[in-house]
């Protein structure tokens, strides 16, 4: 799985005397992998390239703790789409900074590969970044590919090195033949190598579905995180007490919603995480929107005026409660 891929690969890529600079909202698998590596770990403000550069400059100037020797290696770790925020990584700026300071770029594409980009090749394709500029690309087969396991993509020399040194490769069981075939078949569909246009249609549909659903939620007055084109869209609940109420009331009307709370998120930043699929029909989305809107009113999680209410408010008017 993707969790094991991150947590097992990072200790092999870097160790004592190395520096990991990680986005503050990176997935727990990255956090655990970084901790287990023995490298020094520093964090930069979420998706803020300017702060990344500030941290890089400071750490390069100071060097290793106590000895102040130059770092043996520096790896910057980011996600293509952040799993709990639905935001697209500012990859072009981050890659440019990595080049400038001769740091390695590590990209986790678990939620973006097979879901965004004209041909499903992830955020590099979507944002126009040359994959050769990303040193290590990680992903999972459990989401867009409907299988199991994870992968690492990089230079031939890197992959050869990992084959001989990574415990997850040396000692773990390989994925089963059916799972491998499922992954291969999914890739062929996404790339159009199955002789049909199903892959292109699915990619267009997931983008259309995602942008439609996000737009409608925002019009209703929900606080929705993330960027357009991202199929991951968290609806902010904030209060932990609203988590079971929102989930149960939706389920009563046959809409299953995944809620996320501490420790996956900060204590007072609970949310419902909606993941849109190409398989969702417009009827599915409209049904879900109607239920979520009704439950949102019941639970009290519409933190902004609905679009219809905004239109009835006079320009410049101040509403007094």
- Count the beta strands: 9
User: What is the name of the CATH topology of the largest domain?
Assistant: Aspartate Aminotransferase, domain 2
Q: Low-confidence runs (pLDDT<50, min 5 residues)?
A: none
Gross CATH architecture of the largest domain: 3-Layer(aba) Sandwich
Q: Into how many domains do the coordinates divide?
A: 2
User: Beta-strand level of the residues, as a percent range?
Assistant: 5-15%
Distance between the termini: 51 Å
The largest beta-sheet arranges its strands as 2-1-3-4-5-6
**Derived structural class:** alpha/beta
Overall mean confidence score, pLDDT: 93
Instruction: Describe the global form.
Output: globular
Q: What is the string of helix and strand elements?
A: HEHEHEHEHEEHHHHEHEEHH
Amount of helix: 40-55%
The CATH class name of the largest domain reads Alpha Beta
Biggest sheet overview: 6 strands, mixed
CATH superfamily of the largest domain: Type I PLP-dependent aspartate aminotransferase-like (Major domain)
Tally of DSSP helical segments:
12
What does this structure look like?
The chain has helices at residues 2-13, 28-37, 49-62, 91-100, 123-127, 156-165, 167-171, 177-191, 198-220, 242-252, 282-299, 307-312, and strands at 18-23, 40-44, 73-79, 104-108, 136-140, 150-153, 232-238, 258-260, 270-275. The chain is α/β, with parallel strands linked by helices and 321 residues long. It folds into 2 domains: 2-191, Aspartate Aminotransferase, domain 2; 198-308, Aspartate Aminotransferase, domain 1 (Alpha-Beta Complex). Strands 2-1-3-4-5-6 form a 6-stranded mixed beta sheet, sandwiched between helices. It is globular, with a radius of gyration of 22 Å. The mean pLDDT is 93.
């Amino acid at each position: 799985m993707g969790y094991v891929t991150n947590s097992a690969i990072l200790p092999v890529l870097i160790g004592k005397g190395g520096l990991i600079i990680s986005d503050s909202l990176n997935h727990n698998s990255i956090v655990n992998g970084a901790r287990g590596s023995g490298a020094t770990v520093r964090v930069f403000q979420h998706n803020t390239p300017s702060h990344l550069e500030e941290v890089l400059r400071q750490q390069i100037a100071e060097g290793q703790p106590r000895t102040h020797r130059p770092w043996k290696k520096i790896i910057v770790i980011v996600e293509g789409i952040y799993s709990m925020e639905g935001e697209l990584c500012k990859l072009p700026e981050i890659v440019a900074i990595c080049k400038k300071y001769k740091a390695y770029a590590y990209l986790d594409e678990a939620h973006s590969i097979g879901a965004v980009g004209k041909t499903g090749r992830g955020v590099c394709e979507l944002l126009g970044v040359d994959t050769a500029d990303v040193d290590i690309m990680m992903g999972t087969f459990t989401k867009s590919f409907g299988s199991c396991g994870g992968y690492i993509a990089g230079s031939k020399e890197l992959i050869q090195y990992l084959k001989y040194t990574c415990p997850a490769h040396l000692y773990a069981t390989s994925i089963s033949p059916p799972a491998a075939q499922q992954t291969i078949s999914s890739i062929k569909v996404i790339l159009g190598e199955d002789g049909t246009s199903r892959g292109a249609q699915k990619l267009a549909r997931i983008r259309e579905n995602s942008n439609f659903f996000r737009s409608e939620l925002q019009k209703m007055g929900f606080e929705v995180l993330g960027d357009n084109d991202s199929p991951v869209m968290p609806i902010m609940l904030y209060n932990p007490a609203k988590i079971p109420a929102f989930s149960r009331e939706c389920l009563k009307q046959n809409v299953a919603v995944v809620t996320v709370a501490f420790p996956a998120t900060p204590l007072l930043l609970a949310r419902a995480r909606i993941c849109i699929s190409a398989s969702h029909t417009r009827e599915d989305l409209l049904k879900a929107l109607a239920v979520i809107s009704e439950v949102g009113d019941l639970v009290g999680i519409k933190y902004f005026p609905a679009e219809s209410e905004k239109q009835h408010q006079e320009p410049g008017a101040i509403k007094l409660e």
